[in-house]
Write a structure and sequence with these properties.
Blueprint: H1 2-15, H2 25-50, H3 66-83, H4 89-109
Length: 118
């Protein structure tokens, strides 16, 4: 599992710079920020499952399903933002980034580290 996680984290970070040229720079920056925060959240979720004193509160993110679900959010967010009127894309991406940042900061504040699988 750790080998697969390494590959997926690498691919997510690599793909963060390859978002479509048709998007504004601010929207691409938002997608990049979301990807970085999502990778941090993936690592925190892995940490939760490696340490018994913590538990995942989201019932959808079971030990076997959190990685595919969290990866899919990146893909869905990209396609949702791409389909929206270009003048409103920032109104979608940046609130999502703020929410994801809040989750990562909260997890860190209660002692959940980054289970870096290397």
């Amino acid at each position: 599992m750790k080998f697969i996680m390494r590959i997926i984290i690498f691919l997510l970070l690599l793909s963060a710079n390859v978002y479509g040229e048709e998007l504004k720079d601010s929207v691409r920056a938002g997608l990049f920020a979301y990807t970085v925060l999502n990778v941090a959240d993936i690592m925190q979720t892995a940490y939760i499952y490696d340490h018994e004193e913590y538990y995942e509160m989201n019932p959808l993110l079971s030990k076997d399903m959190y990685l595919p679900i969290m990866m899919t959010t990146n893909i869905l967010l990209y396609y949702i933002v791409k389909k929206i009127d270009p003048n409103r894309q920032n109104w979608i991406i940046w609130p999502v980034v703020i929410i994801k940042a809040g989750l990562v900061v909260h997890n860190h504040s209660i002692g959940i580290g980054f289970g870096i699988p290397f």
